[in-house]
């Protein structure tokens, strides 16, 4: 896959999406908006979460201030408008919200002038039995809802049976989401610009059931067994479908891409090393 495309178009409009539960986030938004206005940029500030689908119409950039969860809440609006998204993390270092408040303030004038890169991240499209489609930047997770633990889920790809899984659930992750729940469940880390789907069983009954990587052309269908007629579906950590009769569902790589704005010298694996503490001499394996 190619490197992130260097984008030199100047930014003319910015919407600041603020997570009010993060201390200092509203003050940060006002300060950054002031800096942007000094550069001649039109700005607005919103505290809606998640953003309404039409909230970014006419915006060149959405600056999500809070953390990775805040950034996930602007996904639908960003996909609808095509606006790029910049994440400002008000807590610990994030995988998506990679700018600190101080870095955002320092770099914002240069970003506005066009000194940035855009990483186009793959998005999952999950469609239920009723034909309702929901997008996810991180993952689609299917779990049992009745407190019984193990469920049976049948998976096929492009009409061909993959397997029947007897497990606590299944995770379908994008490369972006491969470092989230997928990684915790023993799934692989996938480079952020690969267009693929990682399927990882959660605590499978059969130890031979391991992660599977599907290519971008795959249409994955998941149906539930008779012992679990209504599993719970969460997309990026939220219940997005209404009602209980959702299965079978299909999962594909969406045609739309999520446009993540980054500093040109951004390194994805530098963040992975920091977050996962790779090479940390204080960590000992016993």
Low-confidence stretches: 1-7
Going by CATH, the homologous superfamily of the largest domain would be Probable inorganic polyphosphate/atp-NAD kinase, domain 1
By oligomeric state, this entry counts as single chain
Cα-atom radius of gyration? 20 Å
List the total number of helices.
Answer: 6
How far from one another are the termini?
A: 38 Å
CATH C-level name of the largest domain: Alpha Beta
CATH architecture label name of the largest domain: 3-Layer(aba) Sandwich
Strands of the biggest beta sheet: in what spatial order?
A: 9-8-18-16-11-12
User: How much of the polypeptide forms β-strand, as a percent range?
Assistant: 25-35%
Q: What's the number of extended β-strand segments?
A: 19
CATH topology of the largest domain, anyone?
Answer: Rossmann fold
Order of H and E elements:
EEHEEHHEEHEEEEEEEHEEEEEEH
For the biggest sheet, the summary is: 6 strands, antiparallel
Mean pLDDT over the full residue set: 90
Helix proportion: 10-25%
Give the tally of structural domains. Answer: 2
Based on secondary structure, the structural category is: alpha+beta
Tell me what you see in this structure.
The chain is α+β, with helices and mostly antiparallel strands and 286 residues long. The chain has two domains: 5-122 and 257-276, Rossmann fold; 124-253, Probable inorganic polyphosphate/atp-NAD kinase, domain 2 (Tumour Suppressor Smad4, Sandwich), CATH 2.60.200.30. Helices cover 18% and strands 34% of the residues. It contains six helices and 19 strands. The chain has helices at 25-38, 68-72, 75-81, 101-113, 181-184, 268-276; strands spanning 5-7, 13-18, 42-46, 61-66, 84-89, 99-100, 116-121, 124-127, 133-136, 139-143, 151-157, 160-167, 169-173, 196-202, 212-215, 220-224, 232-235, 249-253, 258-262. It has a six-stranded antiparallel sheet with strand order 9-8-18-16-11-12, with no helix packed on it. A five-stranded parallel sheet has the order 3-2-4-5-6. Helix 1 packs parallel to helix 4. The protein is globular. The relative contact order is 0.16. The model is unreliable at 1-7 (pLDDT under 50).
């Amino acid at each position: 896959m190619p490197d992130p495309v260097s984008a030199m178009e100047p930014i003319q409009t910015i919407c600041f999406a603020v997570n009010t539960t993060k201390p200092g986030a509203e003050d940060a938004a006002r300060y950054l908006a002031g800096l942007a206005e000094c550069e001649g940029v039109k700005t607005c500030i919103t505290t809606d979460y998640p953003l309404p689908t039409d909230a970014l119409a006419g915006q060149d950039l959405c600056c999500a201030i809070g953390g990775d969860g805040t950034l996930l809440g602007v996904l639908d609006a960003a996909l609808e408008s095509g606006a790029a998204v910049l994440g400002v993390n008000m807590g610990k270092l994030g995988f998506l919200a990679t700018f600190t408040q101080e870095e955002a303030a320092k770099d914002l004038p240069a970003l506005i002038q066009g000194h940035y890169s855009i990483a186009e991240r793959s998005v999952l499209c999950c469609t239920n039995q009723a034909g309702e489609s929901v997008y996810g930047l991180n993952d689609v997770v299917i779990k049992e809802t009745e407190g019984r633990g193990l469920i049976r889920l049948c998976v096929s790809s492009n009409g061909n049976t993959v397997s029947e899984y007897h497990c606590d659930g299944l995770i379908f992750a994008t490369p972006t989401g491969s470092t989230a729940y997928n990684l915790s469940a023993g799934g692989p880390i996938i480079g952020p610009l690969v267009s693929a789907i990682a399927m990882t069983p959660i605590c499978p009954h059969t130890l031979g059931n391991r992660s599977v990587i599907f290519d971008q052309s795959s249409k994955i269908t998941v149906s539930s067994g008779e012992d679990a007629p209504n599993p719970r579906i969460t997309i990026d950590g939220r219940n997005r479908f209404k009602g209980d009769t959702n299965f079978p569902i299909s999962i594909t790589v969406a045609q739309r891409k999520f446009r993540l704005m980054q500093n040109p010298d951004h390194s994805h694996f530098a963040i992975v090393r920091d977050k996962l503490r790779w090479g940390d001499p204080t960590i000992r394996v016993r």
